[in-house]
Design a protein that fits this description.
Layout lengths: L7 E2 L1 E7 L4 H11 L7 E7 L4 E7 L2 H4 L2 H5 L5 E7 L14 E5 L2 E11 L2 H10 L10 H10 L5 H11 L2 E9 L2 E6 L8 E5 L9 E5 L3 H6 L2 E5 L4 E6 L2 E6 L8 E2 L1 H6 L5 E2 L2 E2 H15 L6 E4 L5 H11 L7 E3 L17 H6 E3 L1 H4 L3 E6 L6 H12 L4 E6 L12 E2 L7 H4 L2 H8 L3 E4 L2 H7 L8 E2 L1 H4 L21
Helix pairs in contact: 5-6, 9-10
Length: 476
Amino acid sequence: MLRPDKFREECGVVAIFANPEAETLAYLGLHALQHRGQESAGIVTSDGMTLHAHKAMGLVADIFTEEVLSRLRGTLAIGHTRYSTAGDSALLNAQPILVQSNKGMMAIAHNGNLVNAHEIRHRLEAQGSIFQTNSDTEVIVHLIAQSREQTLPEAMADALRRVEGAFSLVMISPDRIFAARDPRGFRPLAMGRIPAQPGDKQETVIFASETTAFDLIGATYERDVKPGELIVVGPEGITSRFYAPSQPQSSCIFEHVYFSRPDSLVFGRPVDLSRDALGRQLAREAPAEADIVVPVPDSGVSAAMGYAAESGLPFRFGLIRNHYVGRTFIEPSQSVRDFGVRLKLNPVRSVLEGRRVVLIDDSIVRGTTSRKIVRMIRSAGAKEVHMRISCPPTISPCFYGVDTPSKKQLIAANKSVEEIREYIGADSLAYLSLEGMKKACGDGEKTTYCTACYTGKYPTDIVDVEEIQPAAVIKQ
């Protein structure tokens, strides 16, 4: 499988309460969140009495056929789509995780990463707990089951107070849906509604990682689940409580730079607005004498449009992305230079030939892909290639649910900007400043962002960063 030189989000979650087609709405919601995870997906539904589950490796549309969905009929549902991280993908780690416990049947789906999961797991195993997966999410399940609190909502609140790190999660019991975010609000989680239709007893309440899921199923965005908030939706209605004291907000800024879809509202802010502003700020900070602005599709498109608008240079699609690359492919027996990148991107010679190009991308991780793209654009006849990146150099791994390489594999942690420019073969290279990025994403307005991957300053206590791999590796 082609491993892109990109940061990868861990997963997306969705939850549906009180809809006669809950399983179908969960499926459609996951389809809209497919960009957040393409390794496995799962749905758990409730018919009011018991929970039914189906999960598998692969893409949402391939997993959930009409036949599968017909076996998942229910009025409540949660769903999950995820990326694998280091190591092989495995079905046992696919979510939601469904268990029968002393608190009854429940299933949980989680976006994020717990920085104290190893510590808790070792303690629980020493006390006799048996884990079925090597996912940090299962730690939460065990903590709920072991809680001395009598009710499931209280047990969940108790468990969430014991874990640290990033989590936006949804949980289902036979008659309730739960939604919660960590006290720092690292990962997004939005709440929406579908008005009651004729014959329906009540309106449908929906939770999803991004509002683009609401658009597909006709739901209206209401608000974000707040950091440290636990929302329970059940027969008695909607109840909300804060299970932990508020902490300084540290929402992931890379949701706006790269992860989320541009048609989503994330952390209360339109993603496309941020990306356009990132490009405009980049044009102000790092202008280039050039003829055209070309994005690296798809992630660089919105920022490139902003850069073009601010600089006055024409915006052109000089690279065309093949959206239909399968998970497996047959490589030519005779080696083709940069085959992996050419499989996904193809240069448009008529656009690039003889021109000075400003090439816009959202990040440089290892540098290998950027090097191949620059080489490909030159081979198509470009006179000059000026690389511009719509975020600062990434110098540290993420421990909060992003699949990032270790520090020794991050090119910006080991090379200067000039050395990176020389490595990728560009005529010039410039990154957006940290302050410019924060300004473009509205830092301090509605949201305060985590920028640890650019600064190395983490909002929670982290074990010696040089000695351990990113916490995302826990989710193998």
